[in-house]
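Subject: Sanity check before I submit

Could someone independently write out the structure tokens for this chain? I want to compare against mine line by line before I put it in a report. The sequence has 166 residues.
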Amino acid sequence: MTYAQSMLPEFDQEMANTRKVLERIPDDKLEWQPHRKSHTIGWNANHLADMVNWLTVILTSPSLDLAPVGGQPYQVPALASRGDILRHFDRNVSAARSALLAAKDEQFGQTWTLLSGGKPILAMPRAAMIRSFVLNHIIHHRAIVCVYLRLNDVPVPGMYGPSGDE
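---
Independent answer below. Compare away.
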């Protein structure tokens, strides 16, 4: 079994759980935020939908510069409907899954670097970046969205068993 094949069940489970959460977001709550210093539900949903693409970037390039000198900085998309967010998420999941399956075992041990303005922020083996910077990061933002859903009386889906709403 390749490293990618061993990672695939976890990837598939976390993507399915993330999609269940995104499916619950009401279009009329995308601009809701619990505090002026907090991001909106829509910002978090867009970030979740887009972040999956980082797995593809990690496996197909040596680095990502979030604010390249003389270039456009990374920006979270601003999709304005649950349907558009889900379509973006589904496209990114499909591409990430394909990139994962196409990756060779030796790639996972190679260092990948996150940059800002050409300066390293974080550098780790690709396998660690996928688990930390992508999957754990997705779980973190998914949990934020679940709290936001709860605060808006929207039933939270079960992910590792039933939720309090099921």
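---
OP: Matches mine. For the report I'm noting this point. Residues 3-151 form a domain with the Four Helix Bundle (Hemerythrin (Met), subunit A) fold (CATH 1.20.120.450).
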